[in-house]
Design goal:
Helix 3 links the parallel strand 3 (about 50-55) and strand 4. This protein is of the alpha/beta class and about 180 residues long. The protein contains seven helices and five strands; from the N terminus they run E-H-E-H-E-H-E-H-E-H-H-H.
């Protein structure tokens, strides 16, 4: 079974996406949990209670892309699938650039192989995490290399900025 977290930009999107999943032939293979606020979605991601996120959006705005980026930053190893009400190749591309694995059109979702789409997105995200680990971690010591430290430092700086807190980081280069 796939544990899917559905997060929606508006209540109308929430109801529409819920009805698609409820009536979908793959619905029996999916445990769907709905949340309505970003903070709730982040709490579910913290608790590792989902395999993937379905993020329902309307027309696709810059605010929606910011939420995709925030979800991805918070849980970089979790697959995020954006479900938009209208097809926009430009928005789909931007969603992927902001951390989504896929961008689907809600009207076409009812006939799409939903469980397969989600499982493929989860696998792609898992492979991406493996590649990222190889690129960021020293094979011999298991510690972050320079690239890994810089990536982690940048992420921590963004979190500190968002929380309004201070942060000190130290990098030591050993030969």
């Amino acid at each position: 079974r796939i544990r899917l977290l559905a997060f929606h930009a508006t209540p109308a999107d929430s109801r529409a996406l819920q009805s698609v999943v409820d009536g979908h032939p793959d619905g029996a293979r999916i445990d769907l949990t709905r949340v309505s606020r970003v903070e709730e979605a982040l709490a579910w991601l913290d608790a590792l209670r989902c395999d993937a996120v379905l993020f329902g959006v309307g027309l696709g705005s810059p605010g929606d892309l910011a939420i995709v980026a925030r979800l991805h930053e918070h849980a970089p190893n979790t697959a995020i699938i954006v479900v938009a009400t209208t097809p926009s190749p430009a928005f789909a591309l931007e969603a992927v650039r902001h951390g989504a694995q896929d961008c689907l059109v809600r009207d076409r979702l009812a006939t799409a192989p939903l469980a397969r789409i989600v499982m493929v997105a989860i696998e792609r995200q898992r492979q991406l995490a493996e590649i990222r680990a190889v690129a960021l971690v020293d094979e011999l010591t298991g510690l972050y290399n320079r690239r890994g430290f810089l990536a982690l430092a940048q992420q921590q700086l963004r979190v500190a900025d968002r929380l309004g807190s201070r942060l000190t980081q130290i990098f030591v280069d050993l030969d």
